[in-house]
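User: Second chain of the day. Same drill as before.
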Amino acid sequence: MTRLTLRHETLYTYEKPVRFAPHRLLIRPRDSHAMRIVASALSFSPAGSTRWTYDALGNSVCWLTPQGEADQLSIVSELVIERFPAPLSPLRIDNPRTVTPIVYDNVDRTILNPFIEPETLDSDDLLLKWLRAQVGPAEEPALDYLLRLNQTIHAEFAYSARVEEGTQDPAHTVATRSGTCRDFAWLMVEALRRLGFAARFVTGYLYSPATSVVRGAGATHAWCEVFLPDLGWVEFDPTNGLAESADLIPVAVSRSPAQAAPVTGAIYGDGGYSQLTVHVDVRLGETLSVAA
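Assistant: Same format as last time:
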């Protein structure tokens, strides 16, 4: 078990005052056997109202409606969580459905179908050609293949932080052999779907111990989850080569990156020049600076 404190600051600034439409916040994890929320606090300015719901995938969603006019919108989320990652051993499970090509039973497949169907196109077959080169021996254990693919992306693709919003097309990531965490996660998701795996996009946070070097810390992070018979949803972070690590703190899952943005919303009026600043701090401890 690992106990961590998370602080996620989002600041929108505008040249001129604006009014705000409701904003959708995906910043709070859902309690489970893998993670427990010990304490939480949410502060924002200008003042407004909040309403909490669960979306169709079970993500915890806060609807924030700021009141009045302002030239900035500040949202600060603080959490103390305990993380209980699932062990990956034994690596070989006595179930013929757990070898490649993956085969799901009918009950699971009915639920998993939306996460098996690819969403992106690959008109030049760049993704397909790269994927064929990653295929291993017949009846390779699915978990072994996933761990190998996870490490391949980590080792062979260059990490490059990008300020701009949005996610690269997986074929573009293959062509350039570079990207940021959301690009690598989306590449792994869409590649695995073409092999019949159920895979989904995950956003959350990454703890970076002082004794190790990780890529993607200091901001929101993204990785991949794959559904395996007997194991369920298993986490793979191709950016850092991690699998089911206590350093990964999932907040939301989605079919595509566009559905997993931590903060989305709109403004009324012409705010002129605008700027978005995001800062994430994850550390060991349990002190909240905002009143819960």
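The chain has a mean pLDDT of 89.

User: Great, on to the next one.
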